[in-house]
Design brief:
386 residues, mainly beta
């Protein structure tokens, strides 16, 4: 794992300013080294529970190579932050041929309240990411200025097999907002993400990423990617007894197998307070290619969903997306502005895609915009604005 990260948790008034005048290069390679997380005598996760709170995570993961550049802040007091990188940024992760395996059962996972909490299983061949994350808490007023002014290159390459082998019993998302249980097997993933979560407060930003330059996002997978049963990933994993309750909003349970994925996104979520973000991206060029077999062998049984939630499983060869989203659960209007330069989308799949398993004795009780879905997709490309 390679990373450049500037985290900050602020509990007093903060004025933070820094700059990097040169190039930034981050590289992770995993060569001839299989990676496995496969407990034999105990469950992979036994009764993992998140009672409340925000952006909490319980996870189990097996990863070949991951490289990231991150700037992460959480503020519960007033803060003014300014930062700049004037050189090029290169983030590269390569897993040439090493197999990645995550195997074990999950019993009694539960998220009771809170928002943006996650219980997750993941098997990853190679991941290259740039991320900017701001959390605003306690009624704070936070202002962010960030400029990454050179060209940005993200490259993730995987040729090893990636397997997530599990059986999941009794997942419950009882309340809260945007809480999730997920299981994901992915070959190669590359992306840029900007996320602001306003729990309570006022947030403004002026963020420029690759403005006037090029953002190159490359993800290439040739390994076989599978999600399936604990003992054999070619057999169907069972997700049994999942419940998403009437007090849960935008909660989800998902098990997905993905060959290659590329993304550039900006998301703002407001629970209480206001946000006025301004995010600018430069020219974006995607090259997302999958040539490996991708299989999701999953059966969803005895599931019940209410509220405004979803359960899904599927296999996707290649996927690329560009999005700008503003999501508000607060009263009043929220502002969002931004600019994206020209974009070139290239998402290609030539591998076989299999969605096997099915849906058994599962249903929707009542609610709004609920979904239970099984999906098999060769290649996808999307562009989403607020």
């Amino acid at each position: 794992m390679a990373s450049a990260i500037a985290p900050e948790v602020s509990f007093a008034q903060v004025a933070d300013s820094w700059g990097i005048s040169g190039d930034v290069t981050i590289t992770a390679n995993n060569t001839n080294a299989p990676v496995s997380l496969t407990p034999t005598d105990v469950a992979l996760l036994s009764a993992p529970t998140i009672a409340d709170g925000s952006r909490n995570t319980i996870s189990a993961s097996a990863v070949g190579a991951t490289a990231s550049a991150s700037y992460v802040n959480a503020n519960d007091q007033d803060a003014t932050m300014a930062a700049a990188i004037d050189g090029d940024v290169v983030v590269s992760a390569i897993n040439p041929g090493s197999d990645i395996t995550l195997a074990g059962t999950v019993d009694g996972a539960a998220i009771d309240q809170g928002h943006d909490n996650t219980i997750a299983l993941s098997g990853v061949g190679a991941s290259a990411q740039i991320s900017v994350v701001d959390d605003v808490l306690g009624g704070a007023t936070v202002s962010r200025s960030l400029g990454i002014n050179g060209d940005i290159t993200l490259n993730a390459e995987n040729s090893g097999a990636v397997s997530v082998q599990t059986d999941v019993a009794g997942v419950e998302i009882n309340g809260g907002t945007r809480n999730a249980f997920s299981g994901t097997a992915i070959g190669a993933s590359a992306g840029v993400s900007v996320l602001a979560v306003v729990d309570d407060g006022t947030y403004t930003s002026d963020i420029s990423i690759g403005s006037g330059g090029l953002i190159s996002v490359t993800a290439n997978n040739s390994g076989d990617i599978r999600i399936g049963a604990t003992d054999d990933p070619t057999q169907a994993a069972t997700v049994s007894g999942a419940v998403l309750g009437v007090d849960s909003v935008d909660g989800s349970v998902s098990l997905m197998a993905i060959g290659a994925s590329g993304s550039v996104s900006s998301t703002t979520v407001v629970y209480a307070g206001t946000a006025d973000p301004n995010v600018v991206f430069g020219e974006i060029v995607f090259d997302v290619v999958n040539t490996g077999a991708v299989e999701a062998n999953v059966t969803i049984a005895d599931a019940l969903i209410e509220g405004k939630n979803s359960i899904s499983t599927g296999a996707i060869g290649s996927a690329m997306s560009t999005s700008a989203k503003s999501i508000s659960y607060a009263e009043g209007a929220q502002g969002v502005t931004g600019t994206m330069d020209s974009m070139s989308f290239a998402s290609s799949n030539s591998g076989s895609i299999l969605m096997a398993g099915g849906l058994s004795n599962s249903g929707i009780a009542s609610g709004f915009s609920l979904a239970i879905s099984l999906n098999a997709v060769g290649s996808s490309a999307s562009f989403t604005l607020p």
